[in-house]
Amino acid sequence: MIRVVDLHKSFGRQHVLKGINLDLEAGKITTIIGGSGSGKTVLLKHLNALLLPDRGSVLVSGQDITKLNQTALNEVRKKFGVLFQGAALLDSMTVYDNVAFPLKERTKLKEDVIDKKVNQSLAQVELGGMGYKYPAEVSGGMKKRAGLARALVTEPEIMLFDEPTTGLDPLLGKSIHQLIRKMHETCKFTGVIVSHDIPEVFKISDRVAMLADGAIAEVGSTEQMMASKNPVVRQFLQGETEGPLAVL
User: Fold this and answer.
1) Residues 6 or more apart whose Cβ sits within 8 Å of residue 10
2) Does residue 198 contact residue 204 with C-beta atoms inside 8 Å?
3) Which of 221, 159, 167 has its CA nearest to residue 197?
4) What pLDDT is attached to residue 83?
5) How far is CA 116 from CA 103, 109, 182, in A?
6) CA 218/CA 196 separation, integer angstroms
7) What's the rounded Cα separation, in Å, for the pair 220 and 209?
8) Do the bridges between strand 207-212 and strand 215-221 make them parallel or antiparallel, or are there none, so unpaired?
9) Among 160, 223, 77, 214, which Cα is nearest to 232's?
10) 3-state secondary structure (DSSP) of residue 34
11) Could you give the CA distance from residue 151 to residue 187 in angstroms, rounded to a whole number?
């Protein structure tokens, strides 16, 4: 579904991505792990061209999105849904209106069709009957669920998750992971998750890619990563301060 080829990105003198090569399989959930400041979110933002590389390509269904004009890029972005780290709900809108927003902005659906889709999406994330509330009136976990409902209401082919359990306690984090897996089984999207929540996130992942020193250190199934002999992977997963990985 997505192929990243020799991707480079710098911010001033900071060379963040140093030749990323990664294939993200269609219909699978791939989790990107790595230390703080390793460039995970920067890589994620390249997948739907929120950032453009200094060099390299990002191919979505075989199409290099780094070379597209804005009109063509907007069409490709319709394939994507995004759950941002803080859910990114609009405070001035109710939960219902937040979920309805992309349908009203990006489609010409009639109001009754939008209403049906929004209520279905809210029910899927266990927020049925809560659409009237404002973001300030719901918990952190409910905000994440509402953000997931909004991301999925357009039925995207690809879902990007940026630290979906950040700021949640372990029980809420586990419930969000379970919900992501449940929605994946229902919607069959290609998922990409950036996460520090190890090993919990492995339970919902098909594949794991580790980012270190601006490149992919290793990629494989969760079982392969847990059994990896790569010293960089072993140090990170075991939480050791001594080893090839620099501790910032």
Assistant:
1) 16, 54
2) no
3) 167
4) 87
5) 11, 11, 21
6) 16
7) 7
8) antiparallel
9) 214
10) coil
11) 12
* Single-letter residue type at 112: D
The structure tokens 């319709």 sit at: 78
| pLDDT at res. 168 | 80
Concatenating the DSSP letter of every residue in 60-71 gives ETTEEGGG--HH
The structure tokens 């690809």 sit at: 158
If you compute the radius of gyration of the chain from its CA atoms, what whole number of angstroms results? 18
Residue 204 near residue 29, CB atoms below 8 Å: yes
Q: Is 78 helix (H, G, I), strand (E, B) or coil?
A: coil
Q: Which two tokens stand for residue 63?
A: 């199409």
Q: For position 248, what pLDDT does the model report?
A: 53
Strand partners, 160: 82, 192
Token match 């969760």: residue? Answer: 222
Number of residues in the chain: 248
Alpha-carbon span 226 to 93, nearest angstrom: 43
Q: Write out the two tokens for 190.
A: 């290609």
Say how far apart CA 176 and CA 78 lie, in whole Å. Answer: 24
Please state the pTM of the whole predicted model: 0.88
H and E: helices and strands count for the chain: 8, 10
Amino acid letter at 96? Answer: Y
Question: Which pair of structure tokens corresponds to residue 8?
Answer: 């480079």
What whole-number distance in Å separates Cα of residue 201 and Cα of residue 194? 10
Which residue from 49, 53, 117 is spatially nearest to 77, judged by alpha carbons?
49
Contact (CB, 8 A) for 70 and 44: no
CA distance 239 to 166: 18
Distances 188 to 145, 185, 191, 197 between C-alpha atoms, Å? 18, 6, 9, 23
Residues of the chain with pLDDT under 70: 243, 246-248
